[in-house]
Structures are given as C-alpha cells and as structure tokens.
Write a structure and sequence with these properties.
The protein is mainly α. It has nine helices and two strands. The protein is globular. Bound molecules: heme C (HEC) (4 copies).
C-alpha cells in the first residue's frame, strides 16, 4: 500500500521541492556549535555512526541533515523509494564542501594537489580521501540531481549490508 503513496506523481512533486531547497546552510567551520543529533538517520544508517566524515562533522554541530537536508519523507518511507533531499553527484562534491571550507585555504594544502588537478582523469574528489562515506552495497539508485528513482532492487530486506537492514 505504502508503495502507492510514494508512487511516481508524488515523487515528481518531491523532486520540485528538492530543487528549491537551498543546497547547504552556510556555516563557518571555526564557529561550530554543539554536536549534532543524527539519531533519526542512524535508525537505518547505523553504519555511518562511526564513519569518519560523518563523525568529524557531527561532533562540530554539522549533522547529516546539514549536508543532505532534513529528508523527512525519505526517512519515513519504509519502502525506501523516496530519495533524501540533497544528494551529491561526483562533480558536485567540491561545491558542497566549499560552502563551508574556503577554496583558498583548501588550495593552500599541499596534499590537495590531486583535488585540483587540471586533468579530470587525475582529479580526485574530497570523499576519495576524507572518510569512508560510501556504502559497499547499494540497492536503490536515484539520479542524484533530479531525485528520480532509476533502479530499485527488491532484495533490500534480505541484504545484510543494506541501509534498511541495519535498524537497531
Ligand atoms: C555545513 C558546513 C560544512 C560542510 C558543508 C563541510 N564541512 Fe567539513 N567541517 C565543518 C566544521 C564546522 C568542521 C570542524 C571545524 C574545523 O575543523 O574547521 C569541519 C571539519 C572538517 C575536516 C577536519 C576534520 C578533523 O577533525 O580532522 C575535514 C577533513 C572536513 N571538514 C572535510 C569536509 C569535506 C570533505 C566536506 C564535503 C564533503 C565538508 N568538510 C563539508 C563544516 C563543514
Ligand atoms: C527508514 C530507513 C531510512 C532512514 C530513517 C533514513 N534513510 Fe537514508 N536511505 C535508506 C535506504 C534504504 C537507502 C538506499 C540504500 C541502498 O541503496 O541500499 C538510503 C539512502 C540514503 C542516501 C544515499 C543517496 C544517494 O546519494 O544515492 C542518503 C544521502 C541518505 N539515505 C541520507 C539519509 C539521511 C540524511 C537520513 C536522516 C535524515 C536518512 N537517510 C534516514 C533508508 C533510510
Ligand atoms: C588526495 C587526497 C585528498 C583530497 C582529494 C582532498 N583532501 Fe583534504 N586533506 C588531505 C590530507 C592528507 C590532509 C592533511 C591531513 C589531514 O588533516 O587529514 C587534508 C586536509 C584537509 C582539511 C584540513 C585542512 C587544515 O587546514 O588543517 C580539510 C578541511 C580538507 N582537507 C578538506 C577537503 C576538501 C573539502 C576536499 C575537496 C575539495 C579535500 N579535502 C580533498 C587529503 C585530501
Ligand atoms: C559534510 C557533509 C556531509 C555530511 C555531514 C554527511 N554526508 Fe553523506 N554524503 C556527503 C557527500 C559529499 C556524499 C557523496 C560522496 C561520494 O559520492 O563520494 C555523501 C553520500 C552519502 C551516501 C551515499 C553513499 C553511497 O554509497 O553512494 C549516504 C547513504 C550518506 N551520504 C548518508 C549520510 C548520513 C546517514 C550522514 C550522517 C550520519 C551523512 N551522510 C553525513 C556529504 C555529507
């Protein structure tokens, strides 16, 4: 039943909403606040609890929602067909990070040569080096720009590495 509720027309509406959401809230790294509460996301994404990129930001007040949006509809969809509000295609990762980390400072770090390599074939994205922020198994594939569901494998509940089977 709930599959119908999040069917194609509803998803199309959500996509419009997604695009209107401001990418990432501005925040000065040096003015970080209290630790962020990610417990809502850990219900399914428990595997991100100890992950470096998420953890290092969480403790400085930058939670999952700062980068991926509040994503209430995604979190409430037990079928896992509704995408989170903000996803990052590879070519958008740098822009997402530089909302908070000044480009001039990043360029000044020697180890960042590969992040700014002229040759796109040699260029690395921030998450190639920082954290292990990728899942070993994906059962849902959305277009990261439009949020459109491209492919959903029905075996999700049976796959021990899948996000939704990590629920506590
Ligand atoms: C919403 C703002 C925000 C965004 C977006 C953001 N960061 Fe951060 N980042 C912070 C804050 C705040 C800190 C902690 C204070 C500091 O180290 O400057 C931090 C710290 C870091 C650190 C140092 C971690 C440590 O403790 O050693 C790295 C590395 C980092 N971020 C990488 C990234 C990458 C990669 C991205 C993009 C995927 C990113 N950040 C996006 C705010 C942000
Ligand atoms: C009810 C379970 C559930 C909750 C709660 C949940 N997610 Fe998810 N999430 C999933 C599933 C299932 C996938 C697809 C995983 C896969 O491909 O196997 C997913 C995938 C994602 C993705 C990957 C998108 C991409 O780039 O393809 C992001 C980002 C994400 N979730 C963020 C969040 C955030 C942020 C929260 C908390 C606000 C959250 N999720 C809460 C189930 C959940
Ligand atoms: C080739 C690997 C690599 C890539 C790609 C990379 N970094 Fe780093 N980054 C490092 C290393 C190594 C350091 C220095 C050691 C450390 O602090 O982890 C560093 C340091 C940092 C720091 C701390 C800088 C400081 O002033 O102390 C931040 C923030 C950061 N990186 C963010 C990013 C962002 C954002 C991107 C994408 C534009 C990125 N990094 C791409 C390897 C990388
Ligand atoms: C600092 C910004 C930032 C924070 C905080 C953050 N993410 Fe992400 N997330 C990203 C970026 C950038 C990507 C794309 C990474 C890539 O493709 O290499 C991503 C990708 C993902 C994916 C897709 C992984 C895959 O295999 O494609 C999931 C799932 C996810 N994030 C969940 C979360 C959850 C859950 C949290 C909180 C516990 C979180 N993220 C916190 C920036 C962030």
């Amino acid at each position: 039943m709930s599959k119908k509720k999040f069917g194609v027309p509803a998803l199309a509406g959500l996509i419009v909403a997604c695009c209107a959401v401001a990418l990432v809230a501005q925040a000065e790294p040096s003015k970080a606040g209290k630790p962020a509460d990610n417990s809502y996301c850990y219900v399914c994404h428990a595997n991100f609890q100890a992950e470096e990129l998420a953890r290092n930001h969480q403790k400085h007040g930058v939670g999952c929602a700062k980068c991926h949006g509040e994503s209430d509809r995604h979190s409430a969809d037990e079928d896992g067909l509704t995408p989170p509000e903000i996803m990052f295609a590879k070519e958008k990762i740098l822009d997402g990070c530089t909302k908070c980390h000044a480009l001039t400072k990043l360029r000044a770090v020697d180890e960042h040569e590969a992040a700014f390599a002229k040759d796109p074939a040699k260029r690395k994205v921030c998450t190639d080096c920082h954290g292990k922020h990728r899942m070993a198994v994906r059962t849902r594939h959305w277009d990261k720009t439009t949020g459109k569901l491209i492919k959903a494998e029905g075996v999700r509940m049976m796959n021990k590495n899948s996000a939704a089977t990590n629920a506590k």
